[in-house]
Every structure is written in C-alpha cells, then in structure tokens.
Write a structure and sequence with these properties.
Layout lengths: L1 E2 L2 H8 L8 E9 L9 H12 L3 H4 E4 L9 E4 L9 E5 L6 H12 L10 E9 L12 E9 L5 H9 L2 E2 L21 H39 L22 E9 H11 L3 H19 L9 E7 L13 E7 L7 H20 L5 H6 L4 H13 L12 E6 L7 E2 L2 E9 L8 E8 L2 E9 L7 H4 L1 H15 L1
Parallel strand pairs: 5-6, 10-12, 12-15
Antiparallel strand pairs: 1-4, 2-7, 2-14, 3-4, 6-7, 8-13, 9-16, 10-11, 13-14, 15-16
Helix pairs in contact: 1-11, 7-8, 7-13, 8-9, 8-13
Length: about 475
Amino acid sequence: MDRLSGLDASFLYLETPAQLMHVCAVMVLDQSTMPTPYTFADLMAHIDDSVHDVPAFTRKIRGVPMGLDHPVWVRDQQFDIERHVHRLAVPSPGGYRELMDLCAHLAALPLDRSRPLWEMWVIEGYRPDGPDGAAGDEKVVVFSKMHHATVDGVSGSNLISHLCSLEPDAAPLAPEEKPSPTRDPKRPELLARGVIGVATRPVTLFKVIGPSAELITKSIGRAREGTAMAAPFSAPRTSFNGTITAHRTIALADVDLDDIREIKKATGSTVNDVVLTLCGGALRSYLAERGELPESSLMATVPVSVRESSKRTQGANKVSALFTKLGTDIDDPLERLEMLAERNRNAKDHHNAISADALQDWAEFAAPRTFGLAVRTYANLRLAEKHPVVHNLVISNVPGPPVPLYFMGARIEALYPLGPVFHGAGLNITVMSNAGMVHVGAIACRESVPDGDALVQHFPGELERLRTAVAKR
C-alpha cells in the first residue's frame, strides 16, 4: 500500500467526463518479425506474463474516508488481463483514416477506476496507405492508455519498455520495480492516516511558503531584466482555447531525427529547440490557412522531467513545466529557431532556479473534494472562455529508444505518444524519437481542431524549410 503523491492525485481530481487525464500511445507493429505467427491469444498471454509482477500494471486506487487525504495504491487481488487487453479490427477499408477515427473514439473513453488504470486495445487489419495511395502490408496496432496518476512521460516510456526486447526472440526487459505488498488496509487505518495528514498539513505549508516567496521575488527581477520565461495569461486566443468536450481527434506524422540533429549541430541549438520551432511553424501555417493567425506569438506549456534532480522518492509523476513562446509571429524558420533557442536558454535558467519539487510540494494541498468541485464548476461555467488565455497548448518531447525495439517479438515500426488536453488548451502535441525517426502525435478536442491532419501535415514541410534556411545562411 502506497499513498499517491499530491501531484499524482491531482490528475485524478482534474478529471471530468470531458477532461480525461490518461495518456495514450499508438504502436504500429510489424508482426512478421515474431518468432511464431501472430495470434491475439498468444499476445495477450505474453502481456499477462510480463505485467503480472509490475506494480504499475496491477495496483488500483482506494480512497481515504471522507477524502481526508490522497488515495492509496493497493494491489488488485482480482487482477484479470482480459479486463485490460482487448481485441478490435479496423473498419473497412482499414487505412489511416479509419485507424485514426477508431483511436480517437478509444481515447475519449474513461478508464475504470475500480481496476488498475490502464488498457491496451490490439487492433488488427490495419493497412497503412502507401506512397502511391495503395494499401500496404497488414500491420497490428496497439493502442494503449494509462492514467496520468500512474505515469508521466518518462515513466510511461519506461513501462512500455518493460514489455519490449532488443531482439524478436528475447525476453522483455526486466522491470526495476519490485512487487508491491498485497495487504489491503482497513478503513480505520486509512481514516487514521488521513487525520494525521490533515494535522501535519500546516507544518508542511509553512515549509513551502518561504521558498515560494523568495522565488516570486527572483522572478520579478528576471522579468525586469528580460530573462524570465514567458508569463502565463499572456497568450493570444485561438479556436482551441476554450471549454472542451469529450470528443477527440488524433493525427500522426513522422520526421527524420538525423535531419533534426544536423540542424541542431549547425545552429548550436538543442533538439528541443528544433522540435519547438517545427511546432511553431506548423501551427503558424495551420492557423494562417484558417484565417486565424494571431499577431502575437502562441505560447506552449512544456513539461520538464525533474526525475534526476527530485529529492522525492515517492510518486509516479516527477515533472515540472516551463512556458515558452513559439514564434508563430515569425515567418522565417531560422529566425524563429534563433529566437526560440535564446528564449529557451532564459526559460531553462529561470526553471532551474525553481526547486525541482516545488510543483509536487504545492500539489500536496490539493483537497480531493474541493479540487474536483472547482474543476467541474470551471467547466460548467465555461470560465476558460472568459479570462485571459493561460497557454495555448501543451508540447512534450519524450526521448525514446535509439535502437529498434520489439513488442512481444513484433518490431515497433512507429510509436506515437498522446497526452491529455485541458479546458482552455484543447490541443496537445507530443513527439518521441524512435530508432532514427521522430514520431509526432497530436490529440485535440474535436470541436476545437476538427482536422488534426491539417496541422501535422505541415511538420515535414517545416523541417525542409528549416533545413534549406540553415544551408543558405
């Protein structure tokens, strides 16, 4: 039995029927590399063997009486793999469009909180569109969902790797986590823990206020010097900055990692700078085509892993975040990259001055009942449309494996991550490197971004524009 950290629990409290807090992934598999011919029964049995002793796959949440404290993790004594791994087929004709519609539908379904908070949907019959428009060889696709209370970007990637191997006939990589205890706490024990938590909260608050006040003072100084990260509530309003619905759209794209690295080397920037530049260019083109391009730059929230610097040993989410302007007001891609590289250096310096555990510390004070009520009231009153825009979207860059991986013996041809969307920011773009490619996954509220492909289709072209600009300089 482990207590959820305040940050992990906050993702439970943030969830509403429209604002679902799970993270997803689309894995395209080449089943021809499997040592034995693919069958769904064998695949499910292999997954069952691999996850049985991994706590993140076999534990479920249990609430504390009266919501006095954050929930706890307990082992699911009735764990059943058939409740988590499901089988589907892509509707005819089984191409990209049909797959995206199916994945968007699955992404819009909430996870069952009475069970471990994950699902995998094995989708058969997918025939990706070839260069000539003809259907290619049949692939198996795995659409996975894990609640954000269970994983962040890095830990989610690590969990997927536990189901993978470096060779088709090798055993999956061994998990680092040890099995959690099977003891299920009684109600009096949970109540006592909750009372103790409430009693010690003022002491914890006192420890957090001092460093936070000092940080605010330093941030004001940075703002005066022009070296602070972008400020929230200063973003322009777009069509995807309002109250979201439960409907989703999903779109995917690919770009070459070597091209990004060449640009990085030639300009002295970082891979993340180049990725954000591509995002800014794609968003600029998308909004311009719709006649919606704001005069001022869009701003993104960029999650940052603090796993290496955090002093906290508990909790699945070890993240912080920084705000960055995307340069959507700049047409020249190289000029946009140079601007982003400079601003990101300032933002990183500003972010590094903040305690790695600041977000986790403050999240401890998220009261289960009041926090959830506040989120629902915010959505019902459509407040996201009535105050200045906090940020336009979330952009995540997750490092992936540099070599090919095999999921139950099937080579992973592509792995597209998909994060949650929020009221006020109905678009999320997540990129992940994988064996020399960068896979772009965009998920959005369908009413806010009806055609996600109209956005992601600009990524290859933006990369080529940037390469050309770098070569000419």
